[in-house]
Amino acid sequence: MGRKWNNIKEKKASKDANTSRIYAKFGREIYVAAKQGEPDPESNQSLKVVLERAKTYSVPKTIIDRAIEKAKGGSDENYDELRYEGFGPNGSMVIVDTLTNNVNRTVAEVRSAFNKNGGNMGVSGAVAYMFDATAVIGLEGKTSDEVLELLLEADLDVRDVIEEDEAVIVYAEPDQFHAVQEVFKNAGITEFSVAELTMLAQNDLTLPEDAQVQFEKLIDALEDLEDVQQVYHNVDLGE
Protein backbone atom coordinates (compact mmCIF):
# COMPACT_ATOMS: atom_id res chain seq x y z
CA MET A 1 0.00 0.00 0.00
CA GLY A 2 3.02 2.22 0.35
CA ARG A 3 1.62 4.77 2.77
CA LYS A 4 4.55 4.59 5.20
CA TRP A 5 2.36 5.14 8.22
CA ASN A 6 5.19 5.37 10.72
CA ASN A 7 6.87 8.12 8.72
CA ILE A 8 3.59 10.00 8.35
CA LYS A 9 2.92 9.78 12.07
CA GLU A 10 6.46 10.89 12.95
CA LYS A 11 6.14 13.93 10.68
CA LYS A 12 2.81 14.90 12.25
CA ALA A 13 4.13 14.41 15.77
CA SER A 14 7.27 16.42 14.99
CA LYS A 15 5.24 19.22 13.47
CA ASP A 16 3.00 19.42 16.52
CA ALA A 17 5.72 18.89 19.13
CA ASN A 18 6.21 22.58 19.86
CA THR A 19 2.53 23.45 20.18
CA SER A 20 -0.54 22.31 22.08
CA ARG A 21 -2.51 22.05 18.85
CA ILE A 22 -2.60 18.27 18.64
CA TYR A 23 -3.80 18.07 22.24
CA ALA A 24 -6.52 20.62 21.61
CA LYS A 25 -7.75 18.66 18.59
CA PHE A 26 -7.83 15.43 20.57
CA GLY A 27 -9.52 17.16 23.48
CA ARG A 28 -12.31 18.31 21.20
CA GLU A 29 -12.66 14.91 19.52
CA ILE A 30 -12.74 13.08 22.87
CA TYR A 31 -15.35 15.50 24.22
CA VAL A 32 -17.61 15.02 21.19
CA ALA A 33 -17.30 11.23 21.29
CA ALA A 34 -17.96 11.12 25.04
CA LYS A 35 -20.95 13.42 24.76
CA GLN A 36 -22.56 11.47 21.92
CA GLY A 37 -22.67 8.27 23.97
CA GLU A 38 -21.68 7.02 27.40
CA PRO A 39 -18.47 8.64 28.69
CA ASP A 40 -17.04 5.14 29.14
CA PRO A 41 -14.85 3.65 26.36
CA GLU A 42 -15.98 0.12 27.20
CA SER A 43 -19.55 0.96 26.19
CA ASN A 44 -18.80 3.76 23.71
CA GLN A 45 -16.94 2.42 20.67
CA SER A 46 -16.40 5.87 19.12
CA LEU A 47 -14.74 7.08 22.31
CA LYS A 48 -12.63 3.92 22.47
CA VAL A 49 -11.30 4.55 18.95
CA VAL A 50 -10.36 8.14 19.77
CA LEU A 51 -8.62 7.12 22.99
CA GLU A 52 -6.60 4.46 21.16
CA ARG A 53 -5.45 7.09 18.67
CA ALA A 54 -4.67 9.55 21.45
CA LYS A 55 -2.49 6.95 23.14
CA THR A 56 -0.30 6.58 20.04
CA TYR A 57 0.27 10.36 20.06
CA SER A 58 1.11 10.40 23.79
CA VAL A 59 -1.75 12.75 24.62
CA PRO A 60 -1.49 13.51 28.38
CA LYS A 61 -4.02 11.85 30.66
CA THR A 62 -4.99 15.27 32.00
CA ILE A 63 -6.21 16.31 28.54
CA ILE A 64 -8.22 13.11 28.17
CA ASP A 65 -9.74 13.29 31.64
CA ARG A 66 -10.64 16.97 31.25
CA ALA A 67 -12.50 16.32 27.98
CA ILE A 68 -14.43 13.37 29.43
CA GLU A 69 -15.31 15.26 32.59
CA LYS A 70 -16.53 18.16 30.47
CA ALA A 71 -18.86 15.77 28.64
CA LYS A 72 -20.04 14.27 31.92
CA GLY A 73 -20.74 17.75 33.25
CA GLY A 74 -23.40 18.31 30.62
CA SER A 75 -21.66 21.12 28.74
CA ASP A 76 -23.96 22.65 26.14
CA GLU A 77 -21.06 23.15 23.71
CA ASN A 78 -22.00 21.43 20.47
CA TYR A 79 -19.97 20.57 17.38
CA ASP A 80 -20.98 19.51 13.89
CA GLU A 81 -18.94 16.83 12.13
CA LEU A 82 -18.45 17.99 8.55
CA ARG A 83 -16.41 16.66 5.65
CA TYR A 84 -15.07 18.76 2.80
CA GLU A 85 -13.51 17.49 -0.41
CA GLY A 86 -11.31 19.20 -2.91
CA PHE A 87 -8.43 19.21 -5.34
CA GLY A 88 -4.84 20.34 -4.95
CA PRO A 89 -2.10 20.95 -7.52
CA ASN A 90 -2.01 18.64 -10.56
CA GLY A 91 -5.38 17.09 -9.78
CA SER A 92 -4.35 15.77 -6.36
CA MET A 93 -7.27 14.82 -4.11
CA VAL A 94 -7.93 15.94 -0.54
CA ILE A 95 -10.52 15.10 2.12
CA VAL A 96 -10.87 17.33 5.17
CA ASP A 97 -12.75 16.22 8.30
CA THR A 98 -13.78 18.92 10.75
CA LEU A 99 -15.49 19.45 14.09
CA THR A 100 -16.97 22.92 14.30
CA ASN A 101 -19.27 25.10 16.33
CA ASN A 102 -19.42 27.65 13.52
CA VAL A 103 -20.07 26.14 10.10
CA ASN A 104 -19.79 29.42 8.20
CA ARG A 105 -16.37 30.12 9.66
CA THR A 106 -15.10 26.63 8.93
CA VAL A 107 -16.21 26.42 5.31
CA ALA A 108 -14.76 29.88 4.64
CA GLU A 109 -11.41 28.96 6.18
CA VAL A 110 -11.18 25.61 4.38
CA ARG A 111 -12.09 27.21 1.03
CA SER A 112 -9.51 29.95 1.60
CA ALA A 113 -6.79 27.39 2.36
CA PHE A 114 -7.54 25.60 -0.91
CA ASN A 115 -7.73 28.78 -2.98
CA LYS A 116 -4.49 30.26 -1.61
CA ASN A 117 -2.49 27.10 -2.21
CA GLY A 118 -3.25 26.03 -5.76
CA GLY A 119 -6.40 24.08 -5.04
CA ASN A 120 -10.15 24.36 -5.05
CA MET A 121 -13.02 22.86 -3.09
CA GLY A 122 -15.30 20.36 -4.75
CA VAL A 123 -18.81 19.17 -4.02
CA SER A 124 -19.59 16.37 -1.61
CA GLY A 125 -18.49 13.08 -3.16
CA ALA A 126 -16.08 14.71 -5.60
CA VAL A 127 -13.08 12.66 -4.45
CA ALA A 128 -14.27 10.38 -1.64
CA TYR A 129 -15.09 7.60 -4.10
CA MET A 130 -11.34 7.29 -4.74
CA PHE A 131 -10.65 6.51 -1.06
CA ASP A 132 -11.47 3.54 1.16
CA ALA A 133 -12.30 3.79 4.84
CA THR A 134 -9.59 1.69 6.47
CA ALA A 135 -8.40 0.61 9.92
CA VAL A 136 -4.62 0.92 10.24
CA ILE A 137 -2.92 -0.70 13.22
CA GLY A 138 0.84 -0.83 13.68
CA LEU A 139 3.00 -2.68 16.17
CA GLU A 140 6.63 -3.44 16.81
CA GLY A 141 8.43 -6.52 18.08
CA LYS A 142 6.76 -8.96 15.68
CA THR A 143 7.39 -10.05 12.11
CA SER A 144 4.67 -9.94 9.47
CA ASP A 145 4.55 -13.74 9.49
CA GLU A 146 3.99 -13.80 13.26
CA VAL A 147 1.23 -11.19 12.96
CA LEU A 148 -0.44 -13.13 10.14
CA GLU A 149 -0.35 -16.27 12.25
CA LEU A 150 -2.06 -14.49 15.16
CA LEU A 151 -4.77 -13.14 12.86
CA LEU A 152 -5.32 -16.51 11.18
CA GLU A 153 -5.64 -18.23 14.56
CA ALA A 154 -8.35 -15.71 15.42
CA ASP A 155 -10.02 -16.30 12.03
CA LEU A 156 -9.58 -12.65 11.06
CA ASP A 157 -9.17 -12.00 7.33
CA VAL A 158 -7.71 -8.50 6.94
CA ARG A 159 -6.84 -6.53 3.82
CA ASP A 160 -3.06 -6.56 4.11
CA VAL A 161 -0.15 -7.05 6.51
CA ILE A 162 3.17 -5.50 5.57
CA GLU A 163 6.44 -4.54 7.22
CA GLU A 164 7.28 -0.84 7.17
CA ASP A 165 10.63 0.12 8.63
CA GLU A 166 10.79 -1.65 12.00
CA ALA A 167 7.03 -2.06 12.43
CA VAL A 168 4.30 -4.30 11.08
CA ILE A 169 1.26 -2.48 9.74
CA VAL A 170 -2.13 -4.16 9.47
CA TYR A 171 -4.71 -2.76 7.04
CA ALA A 172 -8.23 -3.93 7.86
CA GLU A 173 -11.91 -3.13 7.44
CA PRO A 174 -13.06 -0.32 9.74
CA ASP A 175 -15.35 -2.64 11.69
CA GLN A 176 -12.33 -4.88 12.43
CA PHE A 177 -10.47 -2.12 14.30
CA HIS A 178 -11.17 -3.39 17.81
CA ALA A 179 -11.08 -7.08 16.85
CA VAL A 180 -7.55 -6.76 15.45
CA GLN A 181 -6.37 -4.95 18.56
CA GLU A 182 -7.95 -7.57 20.81
CA VAL A 183 -6.02 -10.29 18.98
CA PHE A 184 -2.77 -8.51 19.73
CA LYS A 185 -3.72 -7.63 23.30
CA ASN A 186 -4.54 -11.29 23.97
CA ALA A 187 -1.02 -12.06 22.76
CA GLY A 188 0.42 -9.60 25.29
CA ILE A 189 0.82 -6.64 22.93
CA THR A 190 -0.67 -3.49 24.46
CA GLU A 191 1.30 -0.71 22.76
CA PHE A 192 0.61 0.29 19.16
CA SER A 193 2.70 2.62 17.01
CA VAL A 194 -0.36 3.38 14.87
CA ALA A 195 -4.07 3.01 15.64
CA GLU A 196 -6.12 4.93 13.10
CA LEU A 197 -9.43 4.85 11.28
CA THR A 198 -8.52 6.65 8.09
CA MET A 199 -9.44 7.28 4.48
CA LEU A 200 -6.86 5.53 2.33
CA ALA A 201 -6.40 6.53 -1.31
CA GLN A 202 -6.91 3.71 -3.79
CA ASN A 203 -3.99 5.02 -5.84
CA ASP A 204 -1.09 7.26 -4.81
CA LEU A 205 -0.09 10.22 -6.95
CA THR A 206 3.52 11.36 -7.35
CA LEU A 207 3.89 15.08 -7.99
CA PRO A 208 6.75 16.97 -9.64
CA GLU A 209 8.89 18.84 -7.12
CA ASP A 210 7.33 22.29 -7.57
CA ALA A 211 3.79 20.93 -7.33
CA GLN A 212 4.70 18.86 -4.27
CA VAL A 213 6.05 21.92 -2.48
CA GLN A 214 2.79 23.73 -3.16
CA PHE A 215 0.77 20.69 -2.14
CA GLU A 216 2.58 20.43 1.19
CA LYS A 217 1.79 24.10 1.83
CA LEU A 218 -1.88 23.31 1.17
CA ILE A 219 -1.87 20.41 3.63
CA ASP A 220 -0.06 22.52 6.25
CA ALA A 221 -2.58 25.33 5.80
CA LEU A 222 -5.51 22.94 6.26
CA GLU A 223 -4.01 21.18 9.27
CA ASP A 224 -3.30 24.54 10.90
CA LEU A 225 -7.02 25.35 10.99
CA GLU A 226 -8.52 25.03 14.45
CA ASP A 227 -11.63 23.19 13.27
CA VAL A 228 -9.80 20.63 11.13
CA GLN A 229 -9.35 17.22 12.76
CA GLN A 230 -8.02 15.09 9.91
CA VAL A 231 -6.71 15.64 6.39
CA TYR A 232 -6.48 12.74 3.96
CA HIS A 233 -4.95 12.83 0.47
CA ASN A 234 -3.65 10.68 -2.37
CA VAL A 235 -0.16 12.16 -2.76
CA ASP A 236 2.98 10.16 -2.10
CA LEU A 237 5.10 12.57 -0.08
CA GLY A 238 8.06 10.19 0.00
CA GLU A 239 10.21 9.79 3.09
UniProtKB/TrEMBL annotation:
Q: Which UniProt keywords apply?
A: Cytoplasm, DNA-binding, Transcription, Transcription regulation
- Lineage, top-rank taxon, reads Bacteria
Gene Ontology terms: cellular component: cytosol
Q: Which InterPro entries match?
A: Integrase-like_N, TACO1_YebC-like_2nd/3rd_dom, TACO1_YebC_N, Transcrip_reg_TACO1-like, Transcrip_reg_TACO1-like_dom3, Transcrip_reg_TACO1_YeeN, YebC-like
TACO1/YebC-like N-terminal domain location? 3-74
The source organism is: Fictibacillus arsenicus
UniProt domain TACO1/YebC-like second and third: residue ranges: 79-235
Q: What is its main location?
A: cytoplasm
Query: Is the keyword rRNA-binding assigned to this protein?
Result: no
Where is this protein found? Cytoplasm
Q: Which family does it belong to?
A: Belongs to the TACO1 family. YeeN subfamily.
Q: Which GO molecular function terms does the record list?
A: DNA binding
Q: Which HAMAP family match?
A: Transcrip_reg_TACO1 (MF_00693), Transcrip_reg_TACO1_YeeN (MF_00918)
Designated name of the protein: Probable transcriptional regulatory protein ABE41_011265
Which biological process terms from the Gene Ontology are attached to this UniProt entry?
regulation of DNA-templated transcription
Q: Has the keyword DNA-binding been applied to this entry? A: yes
